[in-house]
């Protein structure tokens, strides 16, 4: 590539540097159309000089590709020799390198202001185009005359005449101007005067307009002079219009734009006035004859041969005036009249010249060829205007019908066609094809536009190198127009390719022609030269050479260069075409795809250093997000995260230091763009959430961003709206009791209609984002500290809304219903814990959440069975276990079946026609407990993720106890629970579960032994095989010794015939206080029912409870304390020891307003805390009454008045009981 980019060797020309002939030749290429050949009837010295180097070389303006159906205007290349083509490209690269060298931090190619002339409209008529196409003549400089001797003599005679007449200064000046115009009109002075002489003379006559009619006569030469004035004025108007158009294209746009428009309007009016004078002189009439159509023969008869020439000049001047003002219709009519006259004259008058030269700066020849070209230009302009209006009205079929034949049929004369307008027509036709879905034809249009644009800029640049000239950078508007053509075509091609998948059928019907490939490679080379030769970018590369280099950043002007868009778009186009090509090379696809990905990443780094990677509306970054491979590799992810940062300003990388700030203009990410981000993080998010792991770092940030865009179900998701009504009705219904599980599951059959992105035409992100966001909130709530209950409640309510939205879209999604059930259940638990002291106020709300959780669980159960879904064992275990825990919580205290209550009724029509209203049945406690047993029994069939089978046996034992099943069955499940809990790994959580299982077994054994449902020897049998938690520990021996002393003393009391006042505290207490008579009586009453065997059985239970207390380092477990107090009070009759145990659970001596000092364990049922407080308070009152402890009752009464952790109704009941006991004890 470097070989094709020769070093710069051009001379920059300012306005006064070059010779007039060379500059005039360049202006001829600049001021009118974009063809770079002079008029066929007059050749310039510059071209003669250029052609003298190689007479066979001709600049290639346009290239017609035979492989395409679209043939465009423009001259075909006459060069088939490869050496000539290489030489042309070498000349072009020399010129383009010079144009790049002009760029710096204060200047850029301002093609964004380049509104092509076909798009510039007058303010009055939207169908009028401002400034037509004009060919500037090449005139020899400086005004040379073929017969200077004769003209000098004529002027001397004229001066003598003025001296003789002795006229005034005004008259003399006016006569001089008229005389010079007469001389300029005479044929013997072929070349005429220079415009620098004619223009001042015309200005004089305009200034002295009031004296014109007194000095003019109706001689034929005066008519020619007036015509010459008209033509000069029209030339000036054209020059001013072009200058005004240039100011719009130039970076140095004039601040007086309105003033310039006013000047143009005045100039146009002046042209109309003088053209009116010309008409009067030609016809000798007072009104213009052109207002009424005359036949050609009549005009010839009236005017004669010379009159016909003057008529043609007049019509041609009027046509140029109309064209300059943008009046296409009038200009076309006038040129048609000129064509008709020329055809008629050529037909009937063989002596009539085919070509009439006129002394004008612009379009200085009237011939059939020039008129035909003018008509062709007007037709093209009319097509552009009409097409623009049709596109605005979305009449795409009309556009195709209008332009299809125009661009496919060869034009009569393409030597002077305006490629800018041809490109615009092709672009509009391509747009119409895109709107109609004909993408292959649209591609052909855009590809042909690129070929035409590249051919023209190569021809333009090589011509400048040949002439060894370079226009001032701010005046080279033709260069801007050519860049604009390239930018527009590349943009359309890139956008069309970007929106098509590489497997789309469009690519199979597209054949890339050699000319297109050549044009594409040329643009790629232009971008490379631009990126590495721009002076403001070179400083970025060189700054790393020395450590003390000052950091450099491209200027805002450099970053605003519209060619940056072209750089991005053409590389996107190349990358997509290469990916499409790779599909046809499966053998090397992987290797080449990796190389291409590496190239794109390196290119992003290079462009990012220059801070232009976001140009072109970020199309390059968007393409990278689609093209780069998606993987969990850190390097690949970093490349994608870099793209997201440059494009949207998102910091997704866990380590933000890996993200470079390319200072790109960040865009607001929209839903369409966010879909690729969702695809990038979706799998990682689902994998973590399925393992109940909270989202962190990049994945969490991405999901939060996505949810901001997809937080509401679109209004066009009609199936979701239909499903919402069904789901809401289902969740607001009542729980219908069914005798069998199968019938219960059938109640969850819903007539919903699943939705999909294809059905509702909404983003696929909606079908996962609500579930992902909802589960994230639920997991975070589950792992959050219990001290922040209010926030947890708010998050759970939000999660419920999210899961509900997910179910509206996916009503048959098991996980959606399962997570919704868990959220309702967890919310009920949190509120139950939060509102313990105010339970009556929240009980109905809690019941509603529990009921909805129950219905959601049933629906999830139904889906798991109905669709034979394959789930992991852990998922099914958790489904049945969580459902069972919910039903158990709904059934037991403190909710006590509240959620199962119903107010609905059923109406039956009897035989006599009367309607009978019957309340719907409610689920009873026995049926609820049986359902819990079935659920945990099903859970036992699956592997538990954390070896939680112990809890299934634990809950089955609880429900069996509630159903009053055989003690052996209940105790058997409790013993299995202990075995499973002990077999778990020795972690803190598992130690807690072991403690809970052993305590439950101890409690059940104590109750059954007390009620004589089991024998004393059964206790040791059920504890066999359950190792001590303090085995191989010195505490075990200490507990055993202390317990033996205590129970041996009790056994000795029981074995005596009469009660002896012996009081012995457990655990070797040294207290020797005497027992009161009441305490002795209570103790005797209890002990006389016991046998030594029972006492030893209670000792085993008592020792196990003591072990549980000793290993409880954090004093979280109050149940062993309470159970030992119950054994001491109810069984052993030791009220004093029972009171001592219970007082450790109360806050009598502290200033806290909490009555009881107990904590909620991990396995405590929601709301059970409140039940424990009630139980402990009543038990302490009972102990105090039995022991006649007035002080204890008094302290309890005072504490109850301040307490905030019990219900007001219970507080009143407890106070009444305490006061009653206090009165009785005081009286005694």
TrEMBL record:
<dbReference type="InterPro" id="IPR011990">
    <property type="entry name" value="TPR-like_helical_dom_sf"/>
</dbReference>
<feature type="compositionally biased region" description="Polar residues">
    <location>
        <begin position="52"/>
        <end position="81"/>
    </location>
</feature>
<dbReference type="InterPro" id="IPR033053">
    <property type="entry name" value="Hir3/CABIN1"/>
</dbReference>
<keyword id="KW-0539">Nucleus</keyword>
<protein>
    <recommendedName>
        <fullName>Protein ZIP4 homolog</fullName>
    </recommendedName>
</protein>
<dbReference type="InterPro" id="IPR019734">
    <property type="entry name" value="TPR_rpt"/>
</dbReference>
<keyword id="KW-0802">TPR repeat</keyword>
<feature type="region of interest" description="Disordered">
    <location>
        <begin position="19"/>
        <end position="83"/>
    </location>
</feature>
<comment type="similarity">
    <text>Belongs to the HIR3 family.</text>
</comment>
<feature type="repeat" description="TPR">
    <location>
        <begin position="423"/>
        <end position="456"/>
    </location>
</feature>
